[in-house]
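Database export, one record per block. Field names are fixed; values are copied verbatim from the stored entry.
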Amino acid sequence: MEQHVQSLIAQPTLAQLAALVRRVDDRQQLGELLSRYGVAVDDRDFDTIAQLFAPDGEFHGVVGRQNVVDFYRARTATFSTSSHYALTWHFDFESDDAATGMVNAQAELCIAGKAVRIALRYLDRYVKRDGRWMFQVRRLKFRYVLPFDEVASGLDDPMRVRWPGLPAQRADLPDGLQTYLDSRAWSAPAA
């Protein structure tokens, strides 16, 4: 019995502590990557945006660092100001230099003089190169894209992706998630 108790409170090895510190540092660096991304987009700091993506990185179907930067130049030219906020995230490590993550975020943009509020989820793949984490792949899923004056009335509408000047589109989230669909079927009143 005493030996069992001793094994439960055994001290971690130096290698285990080093691995734990490395993983904590990795999580901190990835959190800073998310912060730097939002600031760089909002500040139109295209040099920083370039450094945040791997040379063969991808943003929502646009592949290659320079193509991603060119996309951001073109996209940010369509709105005057923006504020991006990473709200919650988690990371799953595949190895010491590869991870995936999911980031819930919000953004506010001013498009053609119209304030727009966005809730979205980034589905990310990260790589660590030369000791630095960067985006390998960043994809978007939208909860809503609504002009400020439509937020209160539009959140319950499945067609709540409403970019100014474009036809309304169906939201990706949560409407496309099987767990959400199952919960709606369970809670629906019987006919």
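Remark 1: The radius of gyration is 21 Å.
Remark 2: Residues 158 and 176 are 10 Å apart (CA to CA).
End of record.
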